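Here is one chain, start to finish.
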Amino acid sequence: MLKHSARRWLAGLAVTGALVAASATPAYADDTFEVAAWDLLVAPDHVAYGYIAAYSPEVDLKKVTLDLDLSQVDDFATLDVATLGWDCDQTGANLHCVAEAGEYGIPSFDYYLNAKSDAKPGQKAELAVKAVGDGMTASRTVSVTVAEGVDLQSEPEDSFAAKPGATAGLVGTVVRNSGPETAHGAVLRLQSDYFSPYAGNFSNCENVEGLAAICTFDTDLVPGRSYRLSTSLPVKVDKEARTGSELYNYVDWWTKDDWALVANEYPVPPGAPGTGGKLSLVEESSARQSLVPQTDVEKWNSFTEVSITVLGDNTADLAAAGATATGRVGDKVKVSPGFTNLGPATVETWREQGPTLVVEVPKGTTAVEVSEECAPYAKDGDQPWDPFEHAGEPGAALYGCISFGDLKKGDTHSYDFMLKIDELSGETSGKVNTQIAGDPQVANNEAALVVKLGDPAPTTPATPTPGTSGEPGTGGGAGQGGGDGGSLPITGAATGLIAGIGALLVAAGIGGYVVARRRKTRFVA
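Its structure:
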């Protein structure tokens, strides 16, 4: 089983994608050729990640050259190329790099800027970039500033439970300054599930509706101390949230200078500050204000994933549908097991951590053709279930199947399997089993998958009746299978930019779910 659902991960990143797309897209719509880059803050003896993307919204570029003038940054930092697809040569202070378009267009140019140990906070330099693409020229200057290094940390995970319609205080909103320097102020960002949006009215919190809540604090965070919010950050659980499901919210902490850098490059869409009181951090310090910018030297440990388990009685009853086929040894027979949502709640299948349906192949048969929504599955095996990498692989005895989109009351979904009958002296059967959190009716979660001896006949999947275990019926069709399983084509004109921004967001600390999984350290509040 997937320990953490890739579907949930993708859903979490969709919030970030929407935030950036809404703010970044209009900036280059009328340009023919442009260079996108990210200004940098870097602490002495630490590394900052940067990227450069040369792109054209109108042309599929075939070749791009970049020339970087390193003469100013050489005083306090070195640059390492950290990307594939670029050939680079350095002459003196000039770094000359060339890339040709691949399957996904021109790649972004990723690099690491390594600040020397004797770099002085407050030092600044300009990294001049010139790009030439298919005869077009563009330039950009990257501002590099040596900043004082601090280290804001938060717990990787937290959780609580709430009923549909309830307003609850979000847990997991604790931050610790684990660095050697006082952090002068902080920014908290909440990326909430759309079923548990921010519901506060604090004057220092800006609500970017549907995307994020951003709270700014002027408090000095003293090294070695932890800080809690003076009042819990409220979120409201939607009345349609399904009992047993989990809603995932992401809280991350930034230095004020790091956040200003992001907001300057990718302006946050206009949001509304609250009209109520001010949210504060419970511990304050009178430490001297810093005169130089500050950057978080360990951005990977500033994220908390907060899960809300939905209580109440807004349940969904997912009933398994078995199937029966008839054939002789050597025949290939088709079966289409599946399920029906008997309601009343909608099942948002991407929220589920494991498979929606588990299919046990009948003994004496081999699965030779398998639905692309199913992959080999072992409940207690050493190999994790991977419904994407191993989708549609034949030959397994047990399969875990996913589905896409929202399954409303009455919706059905089925999966096609072609079984080869290897040996059969009589009737043989396997099982199918539905698995969703909070299902109130376990009696109809299992149904039989039967193969009988006889002349082959058209196979019809069964339709379950409430409270039964997959009795014969007329069966369901494709249901919601096409929901969000497909993808839109991406052409070479925009792909390099998209890839660069994607890498940038993770490096800058926006992909909270991804980096939260990588952390190995924990703090003590």
